[in-house]
Amino acid sequence: MKxxxxxxHSPTDLLEPFTFERREPLPDDVVIDILYCGVCHSDIHTAxxxxxxxxxxxxPGHEIIGRVSAVGDKISQFKTGDLVGVGCLxxxxxxxxxxxxxxxxxxxxxxxxxxxxxxxxGGTEHTHTFGGYSxxxxxxxxxxxxxxxxxxPAAAAPLLCAGITTYSPLSHWKVGPGQKVGVIxxxxxxxxxxxxxxxxxxHVVMVTTSPEKGADAKKLGADEVLLSNDPDTMxxxxxxxxFLLNTIPVGHDVNPxxxxxxxxxxxxxxxxxxxxxxxxxxxxxxxRRNMAGSLIGGLxxxxxxxxxxxxxxxxxxxxxxxxxxVNAAYDRTVKGDVKYRFVIDxxxxxx
Length: 351
Prior knowledge:
Elements: E1 2-7, E2 16-21, E3 29-39, H1 41-47, E4 64-71, E5 83-86, E6 89-91, H2 97-100, E7 112-113, E8 136-140, E9 145-146, H3 153-156, H4 162-172, E10 180-184, H5 188-199, E11 203-208, H6 211-220, E12 224-227, H7 231-236, E13 241-246, H8 255-258, E14 261-269, H9 282-287, E15 290-293, H10 299-312, E16 318-322, H11 326-334, E17 341-345
Parallel strand pairs: 10-11, 10-13, 11-12, 13-14, 14-15, 16-17
Antiparallel strand pairs: 1-2, 3-4, 3-8, 3-17, 4-5, 5-9, 6-7
């Protein structure tokens, strides 16, 4: 099937119109007409080859919302017209322990990303997957998600990455009523962390260096704001948090945040793929504290997250853009100039 999208052809190229192929649906495939696709910072890192290994031409996009336009012969869970989503994964080995437990994001044989992964299924001239900055996509049924009809589909798109990235650790560490939870950093991830932790019944504290961001966080559901660049305030907050969700996207000194945790408290890193600049053993040893990491979620948990968001009417705060403006949106995202996620309106592909 011919598809239209936007791609770049080298790390320094801008994204531009691109025509390519999607595979015809196999018996267990779903074909989706894409309505909206979120812009994740990972899209930018990969397009610009900042993590290395990007294959060109490159079509970004792993926060996809659309409607089913065709299904394979063996499909039972979806029908034409259904509102559906596709996140960061479109395949995995399906046989390892992690996959059998519905934790495909930890596939022991390597999952297939929605973009720039080796295409294990084939059916086109391309060796690597192309993402959601396009008008259609063909995906195996196992990796397609039902989107609650009460959610704004455009604002639901970033739930497929930012939403599940924050929901997964909050759920795994059983965040809920009676707990004091800190969300460190207010961006695409942090603003979802605040909304979700609040909906789970926790007492939510935004930990930030910016009073302005603190004010925004209160509008999103935070109960308090803790300014991390105020030594006295940080000292007064020591040993008071049950859980910290750390969304800072770059390497940093974690020690001041570890001191905020109670005995047996946990801080989970979801933002920094870079080296953490300082980690002292002292906060761990003397309070039996924990520091952990978390990726996205498997397909069962991602569906659970979408259902939770449907129940609580949670979506992302977005700025909608035409696809012709995506390169400017990349520059603004790098500068932190968005509240809190850009979403591309895919009908603008034809304008």
